[in-house]
Specification:
The complex is a heterodimer of chains A (about 300) and B (about 400). Chain A has ten helices and 14 strands. Chain A is of the alpha/beta class and about 300 residues long. Chain A has two domains: about 220 residues, Rossmann fold (3-Layer(aba) Sandwich), CATH 3.40.50.300; about 80 residues, Alpha-Beta Plaits (2-Layer Sandwich). Chain A is elongated, with a radius of gyration of 24 Å. Chain B has about 400 residues and is of the alpha/beta class. Chain B has two domains: about 90 residues, 3-Layer(aba) Sandwich (D-Maltodextrin-Binding Protein, domain 2); about 220 residues, no CATH class. A four-stranded mixed β-sheet of chain B has the order 2-1-3-4, sandwiched between helices. Classes of the chains: A alpha/beta (about 300), B alpha/beta (about 400). The interface between A and B is medium-sized, with 24 and 20 residues. Chain A: It comes from Pseudidiomarina atlantica.
């Protein structure tokens, strides 16, 4: 299933939560929405699953290149504000959700058995939800989202409340969904995890998309400054290095070693020529910023 | 999937959510014990009461009184010497020229047994007085028999039994149980769902209207079950107590029209009240701190109207209340139980109730939709008013 979001705007009483957002996610892709709290990720996700509607713009769904209505059996949604009936057993909760999704009793039971085994929760099936740890409750929530084998899975903060082991486990499940051809859209704060698995990234701030595409594309869009390292064969005064055009900041590591922060406009080959005029250069390299640093840099600017 | 199938599934889940076998059996046993105790309380109290010794100075032997042991004495002075030590009271009975006899009971403290002794001995002394008057047996019997006063009800083919007279009370008590049940369950169901954050997940599967209708169905059925349980328990306890007491078992005469009318009015009335409760409960964020919780007790007033007109079920006020849709579910069954309500009258009232329930349910869905996804705050009264009348919020 493919989802196309075009020029979507959502206003609340005093704030524009989503501002002219465009994005596309196709089957077999994992699209990650990133952004600080209040960036508009959850508002966008709620519109995608039909809980609220855009004030303008459109959200369309396609199956085999045919526009379709989003039916409850076609998607699974894990909300940010999530919970299940604490006084009912794990199986009761899942059975109820499965039946409301239109699954038959037999289908529901077989799917529950399969997923509980996959998540190592079979022995706890008859326990009330309140007896489960937060992490296990989170797993049951995820099962409730995936129970009916949906083509589109929308997960709002799927890693929150999970320990590193279970985060890895969820990553494995998401990878399986991708391989099955499922469209996965998730919002998250865990950059390192997102960097590892997402096919597409959409970075949002104050309702707007500030960068989107593959990891390399996003990196390119966000790269406002480059970090370079230079090592001279002989000591060079720092003032002379800092005075070079395009160099914004110099961090002195020794009398010969400097870490330079330069504006994006600086051509590295020109800078290298200028540095060689100051003294013999033993080493000159560009430092790669990770997504977390780029994300912070972009949001702060 | 069809809308009614979703509603049935939600209704079934809501019913099972509150129907717990162990609690159900425990409450049945508890209710039966409480009814039995309340009915047999007098007997139980007498059998457990201690026996009081009373010194008596009287010209004749006194009849036995439960839990009282008479200690006959000839002089008053030695009797008073025992007061507070061996006897709890001293009873002096003397002939009196004006009243026939005069009795005086002296005790250190006032207690319940003194009233019983007074009542029973007054009756005994009255008979003694009549016996001393040299009257014939017929004259004494005539004096003891009050003039007859018979009320003849022409409308009834046969006089209503005491069980028949108790029928309206039974119906009202059971409806009250249903109304309080719906208040408690609907409030718990919705505020728990909001607090446990179940709402957002479910609202991607079902519409607010389907969800609310399912809740109304499940909780109304649960309340009907409670009503039937209470009725059965009351009737069973009365039967058991009659059998133990050796009395003839007397059950109210119930006809099909009464059962049908009561069932229909109770079902629809509870559905209407549950719709009100559902809409309103969705706007409550935290039941422990919300000032709006008390508003949910208002439907109890509708049943209260039924108790208010129970002594005159065919009076003008009762007739008006049995047509007024907010009270008809409680008042019309009483009038039908009393007899003399034409079939078209209760069917007409039922049609008005149906229409009102539909209107209230539609308004409640709008309120439910407004409140169910609001966390940490409650909609203002103004916003609720706009939702109720169908304005954009």
């Amino acid at each position: 299933m493919r989802i196309e979001v075009e020029q979507v705007v959502k206003d609340y009483a005093t704030v524009r939560a989503v501002d002219a957002v465009n994005l596309t996610a196709s089957g077999g892709e994992i699209l990650a929405l990133l952004g600080p709290n209040g960036a508009g990720k959850s508002s966008l996700v709620r519109m995608m699953v039909g809980l609220t509607h855009p004030d303008s713009g459109s959200i369309r769904y396609f199956r085999d290149e045919q526009a379709v209505q989003l039916s409850t059996s076609a998607f699974g949604y894990l909300p940010e504000d999530r919970g299940l009936y604490q006084d009912r057993t794990l199986v009761d909760n899942l059975r109820y959700i499965g039946r409301l999704r239109g699954m038959s009793k037999e289908q529901t039971q077989s799917s529950i058995d399969q997923w509980l085994a996959r998540f190592n929760l079979t022995v706890r099936a008859k326990e009330p939800m309140r007896q489960l740890s937060k992490g296990n409750q989170q797993k049951v929530q995820l099962i409730a989202t995936l129970l009916h084998d949906p083509q589109l899975v929308v997960l709002d903060e799927p890693f929150s409340g999970l320990d590193p082991v279970n985060q890895e486990f969820v990553l494995t499940v998401l990878e399986e969904l991708r391989q099955r051809g499922c469209t996965v859209i998730l919002s998250a704060h865990q950059m390192a995890l997102v960097e590892r698995m997402a096919d597409k990234l959409v970075l949002m701030n104050q309702g707007k998309v500030i960068a989107q595409g593959s990891l390399a594309e996003v990196r390119k869009q966000l790269l406002q400054r480059s970090s370079l390292f230079v090592e001279f064969a002989t000591p060079v005064p720092v003032e002379i290095v800092a005075a070079l055009p395009g160099v914004e900041q110099v961090e002195v590591q020794s009398a010969q070693d400097f870490a330079l922060t330069c504006s994006e406009q600086v051509a590295t080959e020109v800078l290298l020529t200028q540095l060689q005029q100051l003294g013999p250069v033993r080493q000159f390299s560009q430092q790669q910023q990770n997504l977390h640093e780029l994300y912070l840099q972009a949001v702060q600017s | 999937m069809k809308r009614w199938q979703q509603i049935m599934r939600i209704g079934g889940f809501e019913f099972r959510r509150f129907f717990k076998w162990k609690q159900e059996l425990f409450s049945l046993v508890l209710m039966a014990v409480l009814f039995a105790i309340s009915i047999g309380w007098g007997e139980l109290k007498t059998s457990l009461e201690e026996t009081h010794q009373v010194a008596v100075v009287a010209p004749f032997e006194l009849p036995a009184v439960a839990n009282i042991e008479w200690q006959a004495m000839t002089e008053a002075e030695p009797a008073f010497a025992l007061l507070g030590k061996e006897v709890a009271g001293v009873l002096l009975i003397e002939p009196d020229p004006q009243q026939g006899y005069r009795a005086e009971l002296v005790a250190l403290n006032s207690a319940g047994w003194q009233g019983r002794v007074q009542t029973q001995l007054q009756a005994f002394l009255q008979q003694q007085k009549l016996g001393d008057m040299n009257l014939s047996e017929e004259q004494i019997a005539a004096l003891n028999t009050p003039p007859s006063f018979t009320v003849i009800i022409q409308r009834d083919e046969e006089a209503a039994s005491s069980a028949d007279k108790a029928l309206p009370s039974l119906i009202l008590v059971s409806i009250m149980v249903g109304v309080f049940g719906s208040f408690g369950l609907m409030m718990t169901a919705i505020t728990q769902e909001k607090q446990q954050r179940v709402t957002e997940q479910l609202l991607t599967l079902i519409t607010p209207g389907e969800w609310m209708d399912g809740k109304i169905l499940g909780i109304t059925l649960h309340c009907l079950k409670s009503m039937v349980t209470v009725l059965v328990i009351i009737v069973l306890v009365i039967v058991v107590m009659s059998v133990i007491g050796g009395d003839a078992v007397e059950l109210p005469s119930i006809n099909l029209e009464l059962v049908l009318a009561t069932l229909l009015f109770a079902l629809l009335g509870l559905a209407m009240i549950n719709a009100m409760m559902a809409g309103f409960a969705a706007t409550i964020d935290d039941p422990n701190h919300s000032g709006r919780t008390a508003m949910m007790l208002i439907p109890a007033l509708f049943v209260g109207a039924g108790f208010g007109v129970m002594d005159s079920p065919q009076g003008l006020l009762a007739q008006i209340l049995s047509w007024f849709p907010l009270t008809s579910f409680a008042v019309m069954p009483i009038r039908v139980a009393d007899g003399g309500v034409a079939w078209w009258e209760w069917l007409g009232s039922f049609a008005v109730l149906m229409l009102t329930t539909y209107v209230i349910r539609s308004a409640a869905v709008r309120l439910f939709r407004l409140g169910i996804t609001m966390y940490g705050k409650e909609p203002s009264w103004r916003l609720m008013g706009r939702a109720l009348i169908g304005r954009r919020v």
